[in-house]
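Extended Data, panel c. Modelled sequence:
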Amino acid sequence: MDVNAESQSTTEVDVIVIGGGAAGLFCARTAGLRGRRVAVLEHNGRCGNKILISGGGRCNFTNLGATPANYVTHGSPHFLKSAFARFTPQDFLALVERHGIRWHEKKLGQLFCDLSSKQILQMLEDECRDADVELRVNCRVEAVENPVAEGPRWSLRTSRGRLTAESLVIATGGLSFPNLGSTPFGYELATRFGLEVIRPRPGLVPFTWSPQDRERFAALSGLSLDCLASTGPDAPTFRENLLFTHRGLSGPAILQISSHWHPGESVTLNLLPDIRALDLFAANKAGGREVKTALRTVLPERFVQAWCALHNPSRPIAQLPQKELDRLAAALNAWELRPAGDEGYPKAEVTIGGVATRELASQTLESRRIPGLFFIGEVVDVTGWLGGYNFQWAWASGHAAGQAV
């Protein structure tokens, strides 16, 4: 077709989905299977860029233990219950198995492809094809009009022609991985139509050192430790590895607590999650042993050297007063660290914030203010823990909207 002719043409469908990521494709497939005429508009040259890089290229496509308690939202966690009850991790796993994709459980209910994340994207595209969904890539939305005076409720002008539809689904994701083409389109559209948007910020993101801590710890770059991490008594505690980097702290434990952290706050790290440091000191008190001698039995040598240079003079444990032992134990079992900041959207796995859940019907993800307008996936103020939870929200929210459009 001539490009100019295509740009002037109008396509009438039942449902327009803006965003060809996990949530958008799953919503389109679900609606298409109901006999709805669906068009997916993706501004990148292909769909599913974030799917392809997820899970180290093997796509952590769900988590068997996903519940509303595993998500961060500024609204009520009860908002998630309806979508999760109607599309579970087992439902998605059944689809994966129906497509012959081999998978494995890594840990803590995290499911990965044995081979490649490309298989999940191919599965979604195949499902969309079988449901007669039209996928338009390299398609930029230039204008959204509602209400339309006559005919279908929505009219969109795009770089690949005009489309009209009764239902419009926004599945444009968040702001993480800007190099993959993320944009604030969904937030801006919601604001334009008067919906509340919780200010977005990076989530599941590494921390950066203060200048003082960088000088102390940058030499430990590449070192990994098992730890318990939390941002406070009212926040979840995660037991995972932390990773020292040149710029700060990363690793699963840090990514998890970053979603519960706000600038200026401290984090608490227990570097000996199975041991009371005071008990360790008491067990090594005899024979003139020093703190570093005791720590070498449970922590890497490189960390012990750096920690002792910072905290402990070279003296036998037996010569240290109890007050000093308590201080040293606290620095191991409850290390309070105040990050300077985080690595921002380029290193963030997800975006926290987005369209406020109070603006949407929990059963359908439709706007309470604007009939026929739906928001799903990461553009909504629902952010999962690390480990397949965000994909499960994409599937569940996409399914809920796909059943309603």
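Confidence is low (pLDDT under 50) at residues 1-6. This feature is highlighted in the accompanying rendering.
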